[in-house]
Write a structure and sequence with these properties.
elongated, nine-stranded mixed beta sheet, alpha+beta, 218 residues, single chain, four-stranded antiparallel beta sheet
Length: 218
């Protein structure tokens, strides 16, 4: 399977055909579950429908291939990652719940900011976070434990912007030392240990993401 950058290059080189027509625009919308795709004349066999919940450890990147040779979530999952793509990303220093799926319709719906899917993070920051600081933050924050040295919080967001939690706390003078996503929509990380994953059913997804669109297949 090609990475996003490799797929873009292949399309621009005229190597990709969709439903019998050469595709030249990487931004051209298609629904992979409903399209016949060939690369260099070889039909691409779509993997069976599958979605997994994965506990991403710290120090692991979410890209399929890393130019710097760092370990990726796909390295950890191995052959079981065939056909899967991550729904959004967690940066290298962030751990916790990551969804991976073969269903592009599902992934696009969850990632669309218009759907306001809530993410819940367990956060540790340096120093004592005051009530006035919490009130000034434009997100849902619950202080769980505080001391002069460190504060533990739960932070809820409805967007998946890169480094958003870290930037929010840096903006009020607190460095984030640990960041873990513990809930994504209605799905919880639960008892999964770092590096472990489990399959998620369609029924779970429908309950966890009201109004979600799930593709056909599998």
């Amino acid at each position: 399977m090609l990475s996003r950058a490799q797929a873009t290059a292949a399309i621009r080189a005229g190597r990709v055909r969709v439903d019998g027509r050469t595709l030249k625009d990487p931004a051209h919308p298609i629904v992979p579950e409903r399209s016949r795709i060939a690369i260099d004349g070889e039909p691409q066999v779509r993997a069976a429908w599958r979605t997994i919940a994965f506990h991403k450890p710290r120090g692991i990147v979410t890209t399929r291939r890393d130019p710097d040779g760092r370990r990726t979530v796909f390295d950890l999952i191995g052959e079981d990652a065939r056909g899967l793509n991550a729904v959004g990303r967690l940066d290298r220093a962030t751990s916790g719940l990551l969804l991976l799926t073969t269903d592009t319709q599902l992934a696009n719906w969850i990632a669309d900011p218009a759907n306001g899917v809530r993410r819940l993070y367990a956060v540790a920051v340096r120093g004592a976070v005051t009530e006035s600081t919490v009130a000034a933050l434009p997100v849902d924050v619950e202080v769980r434990k505080t001391s002069a040295r460190e504060t533990h919080l739960l932070v809820g967001l409805r967007s998946g912007k890169n480094r958003e939690v870290r930037r929010l706390f840096e903006g009020v003078g607190h460095e984030v030392t640990r960041l873990k996503r513990v809930r994504f929509g209605g799905l919880e990380l639960g008892s999964l240990e770092p590096g472990q994953w489990r399959d998620v059913t369609r029924a779970e997804l429908l309950a966890a993401f009201p109004g979600v669109r799930i593709g056909r297949g599998g």
